[in-house]
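Input sequence (282 aa), recorded before submission:
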Amino acid sequence: MNFNKNKPIWLKVRLPIGGKYDNINNLLIKESLNTICKSSDCPNLGICWKNGVLSFLLLGNICTRSCKFCAIKTGKPKKINVLEPYKIAKTVKKMEIKHVVLTSVNRDDLKDMGIKIWIKTIREIKKISNSTIEALIPDFKGHKKKIALIIKEHPEIISHNLETVPRLTKKVRIQAKYDRSLSILKYIKKKSDIRTKTGIMLGLGETEVEVINTLKAIKKANIDILTIGQYLAPTSKHYPVQSFITPHKFKYYKNLALEMGFLYVESNPLVRSSYNAYKHII
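Predicted structure, token format:
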């Protein structure tokens, strides 16, 4: 079934195939590791894996939240794999990954919301490899002490996605809050010199004025890096696509954001949070 009816040609992508993809996939299966690449059905998976770039998904692949835009399964998560940080670090070293993105499902079921695994993973990667790190964190319900622990480990980039404009946040990010997410990004920049990053999706029903106002709010929070991509519905049960934004419009928003002073802006229909992530540390 087509959940993104009349998808335009610029959103057509090739299925991932080939030796590089197979090698990475087999290694991940062997180590029982998850990636956001596969769990979120990223359209860039084939390109990224071909180049040896991937984003690890910590704390399992079942989320305690039920965001209407996300392909990750919602339900009761399995028991935490305490060996996950070591396995990820070993895989990063084996693959000779120069820049790794770490993200996770929301684990609101845990007392520490998974922060111990986050910290251990960053430390283990730094211990055995020279890879730079982007930590794409959940909101940890806005608990600043937990976010401070991530800051203390000093990954090269800390990112947290706003996903959409304020008006649509409650519709697509049911358990999240726009203001809370923005305050997290402000806090990171206030407490550190670490590069900050966020992303939004288009095609959810936002207006141009809302997009521009959101870009202004993001820049006011001193965020360095911005990603803008087209929303695609994972299934018929997810929030429906309201419109397909043209590449020309994405370019318009990119130029506008660059004029505002963002350090890096990735803006085209196929952009996702980790798109060209390795370029953002340069």
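Checked by second reader. The chain has ten helices and ten strands.
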